[in-house]
Amino acid sequence: MIKVGQYNTLEVVKIVDFGVFLDGGEDFGNILLPKSSVPEGTSLGDHLEVFVYFDSEDDIIATTKQPLAQVGDFALLKIVGISGVGAFVDWGLDKDLLVPFSEQRRRLEVGQNILVRIYTDKASGRIVGSTKLNRFLDKTPAPYQVGDEVKVLIAETTELGYKAVIEDLHWGLFFKTEAFGKLFVGKKLKAYIKEIRPDGKINLSLQKAGKAKVDDLADKILTALERQGGFLPLSDKSAPDDIFKAFRTSKATFKKTIGSLYKKGLIIIEKDGIRLNDN
């Protein structure tokens, strides 16, 4: 079955001067892949991976262009136009994506980058975007356990810290004390489940918890030292951003870890960095 607004692998069933037609099954019949998107050497019977969506005439069409996101995704997209029906954002295709007024949390302006959820409107069948993210999250019980590694997307800032979308399914929160490094709306990164509260809300961390966090970081530091000839220009005096860029950890955890490695005799802490202890 064809998934509109997503990638599909379809068979070439007809070749014409202006492109090729792909088998869209009983629901859609033949779907045009315009000549500009047809890979060189395409023949009848070939199977092509294409993105299927509606063009400016609301006709079903295929493309080999890669959109910035697809149906079911959350994405940070730029507003390129405003009309009487809503705002239009660039999602990497010839036809811009509509964010209807009814799906906007606040007034939008051209040039803004906004986080949207792309979905198919059941009433019209059209692919649209929404900034009302609550509609799409926390609809199922969270299957996570404390300590699980998850993929997250920073969605907005609050007085408490940063709200994030976990695995495209649930809300999570980084408290300010956990928000070291450069976090910003639209950033994708890995995180860890720190706490699942009795009310179901989820707290996140950028680091593994407790001893596992330190042991994991110690292995990474030793591996990095070996790869860099035994020396790294990082120490307990380094800037937090430099430490985070290298190991995605806080300065406090880094200091604790190299202190432990030093006590074990594995490294030497020098003025301008750390060095493997050859002895």
From TrEMBL:
<feature type="domain" description="S1 motif">
    <location>
        <begin position="3"/>
        <end position="65"/>
    </location>
</feature>
<dbReference type="InterPro" id="IPR003029">
    <property type="entry name" value="S1_domain"/>
</dbReference>
<dbReference type="InterPro" id="IPR012340">
    <property type="entry name" value="NA-bd_OB-fold"/>
</dbReference>
<dbReference type="InterPro" id="IPR014464">
    <property type="entry name" value="CvfB_fam"/>
</dbReference>
<dbReference type="InterPro" id="IPR040764">
    <property type="entry name" value="CvfB_WH"/>
</dbReference>
<dbReference type="InterPro" id="IPR036388">
    <property type="entry name" value="WH-like_DNA-bd_sf"/>
</dbReference>
<feature type="domain" description="S1 motif">
    <location>
        <begin position="145"/>
        <end position="207"/>
    </location>
</feature>
<dbReference type="InterPro" id="IPR039566">
    <property type="entry name" value="CvfB_S1_st"/>
</dbReference>
<dbReference type="Pfam" id="PF13509">
    <property type="entry name" value="S1_2"/>
</dbReference>
<dbReference type="Pfam" id="PF17783">
    <property type="entry name" value="WHD_CvfB"/>
</dbReference>
<dbReference type="GO" id="GO:0003676">
    <property type="term" value="F:nucleic acid binding"/>
</dbReference>
<protein>
    <submittedName>
        <fullName>GntR family transcriptional regulator</fullName>
    </submittedName>
</protein>
<feature type="domain" description="S1 motif">
    <location>
        <begin position="70"/>
        <end position="132"/>
    </location>
</feature>
<comment type="similarity">
    <text>Belongs to the CvfB family.</text>
</comment>
